[in-house]
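note to self — DONT lose this again. spent like an hour looking for the file last time. sequence + predicted structure for the chain T wanted, 282 res
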Amino acid sequence: MTHPAPTRRDHLSTALTLAARGVPVLPLHKGKVPFANCPACLYTSCGGRPNMKTPGPCQCPRPCHAWAAATTDPVTLTGPAWAPAWKQAAAVAWHPGGIGLTVVDLDHADAVAWARRTLPATRTVPTTRGEHWIYQGAMTSANDVLDGVDVKSTMVYARWLGPGTGTMTTLPNTVRALIVKKPSPVRPVTMALPAGGGECLHRTPAYLERGIAMAEQRITAATNGVHATVYRTFLAVLSTHGRCGCLTETHVARLFAAAQTKGESPRHCADAWSNARIALGM
């Protein structure tokens, strides 16, 4: 017997049920992409994009993108900001780290076989191509820790596919070790820089160096709203140092490296840099 696909009303009902149990949730668009819940936000980061009418930093009073938008507040979930989103929602997402859990996302049969050989049994949820193994305990998230294995906990969302079966057990050190054995190197970047020709304000090399160092410190000190902090920092650097041609690839790589240590992906860094340039007319 086949069961009908969940309707959009079903997704909202599921979200409200989860929220009542203390699970932070948010709507997902088709393709497992989160909705932005304000006109100035990207789907996964704050700041504008070229085809938006109002590019620039998000003016929301709180984080409103991806995992940071997950909430247990029924007023927010049913309010005007997300009412259009639920009408188009294709799925519900939840923030595992928000309730002290970790999802080991196993993307194919070989990954599932590895987990059965290596990890302690816990609650499992079938996915389209593999399984989610859910453990008690939160940790830093990381993608591609092994072939077909992602770790989803803090600062990420996972698609809600049901409560699963089995007894949830404590997050094993084997999973924690996946992200500390071989830390992912910062990927090199090649970004377009503004053309020179403007008046140079860098009276000494120390002026530019101090500006880059302060920008790195601002990014690494961020405790929440990392996407927005990265964008605004890039915007500040470009507005001060970006028009005379003194800013080099080395300087940009340092900024990207600082952002990646806070969990930003190279793509998010590139998007934030591009959006900052567009906002400044570069």
